[in-house]
């Protein structure tokens, strides 16, 4: 009976040691990736000027613009 208990406890230690090692490996990978900076910046496409009901609109570059939401074309 004690032998079975000892084998079960030993198996738990072995399995937990493997899991801990994998956790450390993944954490080290994440830490290494955070230091990398992107090599390229995004590209911007500015549309052509247009008129609606006689009013002229001229699209302009605005690098600080940051809006999220749902776009709709109707």
Write a brief structural summary:
This protein has 74 residues and is mainly α.
* Arithmetic mean pLDDT: 78
Query: Strand percentage, roughly?
Result: 5-15%
Count of helical stretches: 1
Strand order of the largest sheet: 1-2
Amino- and carboxy-terminal Cα gap: 75 Å
Descriptive notes:
The chain is mostly helical and 74 residues long. It has a domain of 34 residues. It has a two-stranded antiparallel ribbon. A hairpin with a 2-residue loop joins strand 1 and strand 2. It starts with a helix and ends in a 17-residue tail after the last strand. The model has no long low-confidence stretch (mean pLDDT 78).
Secondary structure blueprint with pairings:
Blueprint (H helix, E strand, L loop, with lengths): L1 H33 L15 E3 L2 E3 L17
Antiparallel strand pairs: 1-2
Task: Please supply descriptive tags for the structure shown above.
45% helix, single chain, mainly alpha
